[in-house]
Structure formats: structure tokens, C-alpha cells
Amino acid sequence: MLRTLQTFAWLIIAAWLLWPAAIVAQSGLELPAVPEDRSFFQDYANVIASVEARRTIGELQRVAFEEHDTPIMVVTIASMARYGGSEYSIERFAYEWFNKWQIGKRGKDGELINRGILLLVSDGDRKARIELGADWGQGWYFGRPQCEVDLAQVRSGTSD
Length: 160
Known about the structure:
This protein is an alpha/beta fold. The protein has helices spanning 2-25, 51-68, 90-101, 151-156; strands spanning 41-43, 72-77, 105-106, 112-113, 117-122, 127-132. A four-stranded mixed β-sheet has the order 1-2-5-6.
């Protein structure tokens, strides 16, 4: 009887550990591969035309990575549907993207330090999401005001 309970416990633990991988595998999303050059800025929607804006984003990303060990990936897409995510919330879509690209930094021993940040903007869906790596912890953002982004205001320059 004890052996049966131990076997059952191990099966429960294995299922619990493999469950997130199964969800990602079944997600059906067709996300691009991680950029070869590990570029922190991917404008798939071609919405950032200004060279100065690209330079500013790049400088902020460089400082965050080099001085704070925090990679910040900025990704713009035309729509979630283009990647198979028409039925996804922006939260789930960004979560899947973050995990596929394994946004973080490798430690001295090769371990993934999951302290990355993904800013995902879906232009056609008029949605944006900031996804944080698990090492930020839940306490970091609980109790803080949420930010809603109206992409129409951002594009027209009327946002605060």
C-alpha cells in the first residue's frame, strides 16, 4: 500500500512539473525564433520609424542590461492572429512569447537568471503588455497601480 501511494505521489509531482511544458507545446502559436544576434528590439510591425526613437530605445536597453543585469526586449507585431494567437489574451500571448525566447541572462554557471522584461505591442489589436520574468517575484508588482495603454493616443502623440 505504501509503495502504491509513493508511486501515485511521484506521478502527481511529474504531472505538475510537466504541465507548463505541455501547455506551451499545445499552444499552437507560430512565434519567430530568437533573433540570431540576440537583438533586444524587434519591430515586426514596422511602427518605430524614427531613427532617434530606435537609438533611444537601444540606449535604455543597453544600460538596463549592462548596469542592472536586466534584458529588456521590445517587440512590436501587427497582430496576435498573425502568429496564431487570435483567441489569446494579450497576457497569455506575451507569457508564451517570453517563455519561448527565454528572456533573461545566463549566470556564471550557465543558469538562467529569469529577470528579463518583455514589452510586447500588438499594433492591430491595440494592446500592449509588459511581461516580467519570475525572478521579479509577485511582491514586486502587487499593490502597484496598473497601467493601461491606449495605442491610438500613443500614435497620435496625445498621451500623457
